[in-house]
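Subject: sequence -> structure tokens, single chain

Hey, anyone have a minute? Need the predicted structure for the following. Not urgent.
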Amino acid sequence: MTADQAISRTRCGYDEPVAHRVLGGELPLLIHIHMEERMMSFRRLLTFVLAAVLAILAPVSAAQAASAPAPGAPRAGFTAASYCPERGEQVKTSTDATVYLVGPDYYLYAIPGDVYFRLWDRWQPISINDHLFIDCYFDALLLANSHLAKTANDATVWIYDRDSGGYRGITGYAFDKYHFSWSKIRVQSSVEPKSPWLWDN
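Reply:
Had a minute. Here:
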């Protein structure tokens, strides 16, 4: 090595082999490792934030689900409200022609127009109640395709209630309470499927 070469290398501040390692190989690798570590830290932070958000929201959702009534079920405090209808009562609001029936356990049923005269042979008293969907109910079930039926060898009268899973046996007390019409009972070869719930109050 000449004296001029030695001075040149000294002025640059690094030895040539060291410069080659830093500029040609090790420095890019160190930068890459550093970037990966930062990305991993960011991912860990993001995971922590998401977990915290879910932990906050999950109990709220569960509480809301637990407090939400079943479709057609009365609101909390329903039975204490004098302006809410009684079981067996037919009711409508002043702004809607839909007729509703308050069924067993105070569940509310909307009666389709083509179903009404499958259950009754004439119009029953219908009260107007504008508290119905303000203080008494959130919504109503639908008596879709509902009708009265029995078989030739069994005196039990059934009402078809799709939302309860099929035909519900009607007790004598309930038949009179709801003023169903004997003339509307169909005699069928079978009444299937049967619901586990009676129409009994």
